[in-house]
Amino acid sequence: MSKYKLLQGDCLELMKKLPDKSVDLVVTDPPYDVYAGKGGGAFGKRNSYQEIEFMSNGFNEVVLDELMRVMKNINIYIFCSQKQIPFLIDYFVHKHACNWNLLTWHKTNPVPACKNKYLSDTEYIFFAREKGVPIYGEYSTKKTYYVTPLNTKEKKLYNHPTVKPQMILENLIVNSSKENDVILDPFVGSGSTGVAAINNNRKFIGVELNTNYIEVANRRLAEVA
Ligand SMILES: C[S@@+](CC[C@H](N)C(=O)[O-])C[C@H]1O[C@@H](n2cnc3c(N)ncnc32)[C@H](O)[C@@H]1O
Predict the structure, then answer these.
(1) Cα 151–157–159 angle (5° rounding)?
(2) Which of 70, 75, 183, 225 stands 20 to 30 A from 22 (CA)?
(3) Cβ(57)–Cβ(84) under 8 Å?
(4) What is the pLDDT of residues 49-64, one digit of tens each?
């Protein structure tokens, strides 16, 4: 395949076009309210029971099952909220016997919270890998926490509300893949994972539903490829 491929549409539908066992690593940052209903795309149609599942789990099993099909071995980083962690542990550790780590991204200047709440100053990155899947990288790339100010500048520049810091994505890719490996991000947003993959001589497949964001991602990837 060429250096990268960006697909516009629903990832659940478009991932069906990818062959089994064709991806070395998934690095993804789904919207924290993704819901995948059977036959309804990644958002599907919710009923009240599913609404509860969606509230507590966010990232649904249907999307994960499709990712499992396309990965050569289970090797996946998922940005997530605290609420999604029990679901991810259940799926990857209890159901699929993976090794796992929880990495964190701490923001030094979060927006103030209401009276009886903690600040929203931490995001989580859940990492699951099948037994035997290696971690490469070096001392400087293998830390499990990151502390940065909010990356407001990139969010404005790429006109996307949840752009992730480039340095974190590059470390994850270097730690868990080799040159020319295929990296997949089914929720590509402004294309940050793709830029990190190309910068490190990996191949990249990204999917994005929103036509404005896919344009931004295309522009960013064309600049680095
Ligand atoms: C949290 S953002 C990703 C941001 C990205 N990490 C970045 O740095 O720009 C999640 C993205 O998933 C996209 N998305 C939501 N539902 C989708 C779906 N069903 N298929 C593909 N993309 C979807 C949203 O439009 C949004 O841009």
Answers:
(1) 95
(2) 225
(3) yes
(4) 344 344 334 468 899 9
Where b means 16+ CB within 10 Å and e means fewer, 128-137 reads bbbeebeeeb
What Cα–Cα distance (Å) separates residue 87 from each residue in 56, 58, 186? 8, 9, 19
Give the mean model confidence (pLDDT) for residues 148-165: 91
Q: Kindly list the structural domains of the chain, giving each domain's residue range(s) and its CATH number in brackets, ordered by start.
A: 4-224 (3.40.50.150)
**Closest to 23 (Cα-Cα) out of 54, 69, 64, 63:** 69
Whole-number Å distance between alpha carbons of 111 and 89:
29
Query: Are residues 128 and 74 in contact, defined by beta-carbon separation less than 8 angstroms?
Result: yes
Q: What's the pTM?
A: 0.91
Regarding the beta carbon of 204 and ligand 1, being less than 6 Å apart is answered no
CA distances from 209 to 24, 71, 90, 157, 190 (A): 23, 21, 28, 20, 11
Ligand 1 atom with least separation from CA of 190: 9
Residue nearest atom 4 in ligand 1 by C-alpha distance: 189
